[in-house]
Amino acid sequence: MADYRNLIDGEMVDNGEWLEVLNPANEQVVGRVPACGKDELDRAVAAARRAFKDWKKTSPEERQKVVQGIAAAIKENADELFRLLTSEQGKPHAQAQQEIYGAAGLAAAQSTLTLDDVVNQDDDTRLSRTRRVPVGVVGGIVPWNFPVMMAIQKIVPALVAGCTIVLKPSPFTPLTTLRIAELIKDVVPAGTVNIITGEDSLGPMITEHPDIDKITFTGSTATGKKIMEGASGDLKRITLELGGNDASIVLPDADVEKVAEQLFWSSFSNAGQVCIAAKRVYIHKDIYDDLSKAIAEYAKTVVVGDGSQQGTGVGPIQNRKQYERVLELIQDAKDNGYKFLTGGDKDPSGTGYYVPITILDNPPEDARIVAEEQFGPVMPLLKFDSIDEVIERANNSEYGLAGAVWTKDTDKGVEIAEQLETGTVWINEFMHLSPFSPFGGHKQSGFGAEYGLDGLKEFTYPQVITVKRDAAV
Ligand code: NAD
To answer: If you ran DSSP here, which 8-state letter would residue 408 be given?
Structure first.
């Protein structure tokens, strides 16, 4: 058990008050982090404000160098970082490794993004151009499911755009982010990146802080709404990446054996705690029996357990609150007599927030386990007859994050994708995000976008400068 400190104004600091962080695999304390409040936040914001004066004047090349330094620091220490990540988050080592290398790769790739000036008018009367100027001090708030990736996808575009940032990790998973803070302390100029930890109550203090100009948030839709409200006082810019209830649609021409395993992982990667996991899997009636059987058979080969142990495919749920919510949804399905292909029973003895792999056989569309975001190792398989019907069912959600279509006929897949009300649709894969493509939700899954130039623009204001050429002055 070690203590991890906050990064404020280029120094690793603590305030003498601590929060304990548990390993979800055994409920033992793995580390402590500072329990910060308004005073520490004010110091971090003041440091970010001071640093902004110089940082906003740096060239894209200078920023790129700093961000590449962050990528290198993560990559060089990947072994230590992925083990620490598993110990606080619960995901199996291989998936933790993917997150750490993914975060380093994202930083390296996004360091190359630049927002060039756009000429609006260039004639005898005027030269008008739009330049992008950094919004200022950013408040970043991140969840516990991909703590490192989410932190990096906020810190990096903020820096690339010329902003400075105060980032708050989730109180459940702050350790790896603070270890990265220590590693990059001398890579980033003092005050440009500040990372402070505290309970959920630190969140609204960030949202409402008068000297923060923009909030970039990833988390639940319920919290996203509170953030929008909190940020409205001084009209802060906001980017919200929120929940989802993504539908996968499997057409009758899909190869049952080939897609079964991929469909399984589209729902069970990171124990289902992925905003873009397939949370409803619609299978055409002609292949429903064969495919549901193949998925259930594959599920039997996957080990649920401690993510630090070799062979574990699905780790524990990250925290007790989420664990209890997932068990409640499973209990509701049992109480209603829905049919389980796997799971449904939980051994109440023992420590660790483990939930058996749970696959439901065609529960009704209004079942809680279908209509709500489960965010756990739960997969409802649903039977459909016609394309029109399945599109309507997939769109019947307040969420609109992502979705997938599985078919040999990719033109047909695209035709269906174009009718889905979501920010991203994959044909014959899932969860692939590119550093260069915008990612964001429709409806109540989000506001704005991350990734790509669209994501970068969200850290800037447009400024139009017009020179009158034929002026009499
Ligand atoms: P959460 O909303 O409970 O917490 C997220 C962060 O917000 C944490 O750091 C928390 O401390 C902070 N917070 C809590 N209350 C706050 C408030 N009132 N004001 C400001 N900040 C506050 O979410 P979670 O349980 O950590 O994460 C799970 C949710 O995140 C799921 O719904 C999932 O779908 C969503 N998610 C979305 C994406 C995406 O990119 N769209 C990615 C990952 C997770």
So the answer is: S
Whether 163 is a known active-site residue: answer no
Helices 175-184, 60-76: inter-axial angle, 10-degree rounding: 120
In order along its 473 residues, the chain shows pLDDT tens digits of: 899 999 999 999 999 999 999 999 999 999 999 999 999 999 999 999 999 999 999 999 999 999 999 999 999 999 999 999 999 999 999 999 999 999 999 999 999 999 999 999 999 999 999 999 999 999 999 999 999 999 999 999 999 999 999 999 999 999 999 999 999 999 999 999 999 999 999 999 999 999 999 999 999 999 999 999 999 999 999 999 999 999 999 999 999 999 999 999 999 999 999 999 999 999 999 999 999 999 999 999 999 999 999 999 999 999 999 999 999 999 999 999 999 999 988 766 689 999 999 999 999 999 999 999 999 999 999 999 999 999 999 999 999 999 999 999 999 999 999 999 999 999 999 999 999 999 999 999 999 999 999 999 999 999 999 999 999 99
Q: Are 410 and 312 in contact (CB under 8 A)?
A: no
DSSP state of 450: B
Q: Against a cut of 0.85, is the pTM above it?
A: yes
**SS3 assignment, position 179:** helix
Helix or strand run (H / E) with residue 138: strand 137-141
Sequence-distant (6+) residues with CB within 8 A of 124 are: 469, 470
Number of C-beta neighbours around residue 170 at 10 A: 25
Radius of gyration of the chain (CA): 23
Q: What separation in Å is there between the alpha carbon of 388 and the centre of ligand 1? A: 34
Cβ of 384 closer than 6 Å to ligand 1, yes or no, is no
Quote the Cα angle for 247-250-254, to 5°. Answer: 155
Q: Which residue has the tokens 């609109």?
A: 400
CA 52–ligand 1 middle distance (angstroms):
27
Which alpha helices (DSSP H) does 240-371 contain, by range?
256-268, 285-299, 320-335, 368-371
* CA atoms of 389 and 96, how far apart (whole Å): 38
Residue 401 CA, closest ligand 1 atom number: 41
∠ CA 260-380-91 to the nearest 5 degrees? 70
